[in-house]
Amino acid sequence: MSFDHITFSIETGIARLTLNRPETLNALSRPLLGEMMEALDLVRDSHDVRVLVLRGEGRGFSSGADLSGGGSPAGSSGFDAGQVLEDFYNPLMERFFALPFPVIAAVHGPVVGAGCMIALAADIVLAARSAYFLQAFVNIGLIPDAGSTWWLPRLIGPGRALAMMMLGERVPAETAAGWGMINEAVEDAELENRTSALATRLAHGPTRAYGLIRQAVRQGLAQGFSQSLSLERAGQQAAGSSADFLEGVSAFREKRKPLFSGA
User: Fold this and answer.
1) How far lies 143's CA from each of 9, 85, 113, 147, 166, in Å?
2) Would you say the pTM of this structure is higher than 0.90?
């Protein structure tokens, strides 16, 4: 499938989704968001994908929502600022959180607004030192969306999250790493190689276990300890019935590196 506002490919178990509106710093237009959902449906249903890498083309990851010209009816009679969330952002974020394999975000330059939350929805976030994270909503009189109010406090604590949301100030990549908001800040020249190495590692790992880990962590954030124990029990049963578990045990006993198939 060809796209106009993103680039998308699958090769050797690695899906790559790149926001591709560099002339707007990858502003999140409705057509772009729609194409992202189509691509996520493709990877969800593919038996060939074992990891997804998310990036932005050009000078930055994303400048946030596209507020330019006719793309935004803000100020018009009957305008509902929440409708775009219901139609695009909310279903997009649900798709990200439900994927059955790891997601890596490799970001640089501006990581702004809903683009910030899209990046932080990844399991592992690698940021070039040129990257900065900005919850810009308050600067135009809006509240954070795309799941920001749920996820950010869990990543960095309510105090830092509230300050980030209310002050609308940039958070540099190194600060974000120190807060635990992202996994690693690297030199810009190293971002591609670091991302490729990590994606390759995950693409050769126990994919089913990765998916079950994602599910357990996401659900565990919204439920009690006893419920998490029950979820772990069910997940362990599923992981224990996988071909990768049998391979992992065999490799351990034979003192060799496991060759996981993702099954």
Assistant:
1) 34, 12, 10, 11, 9
2) yes
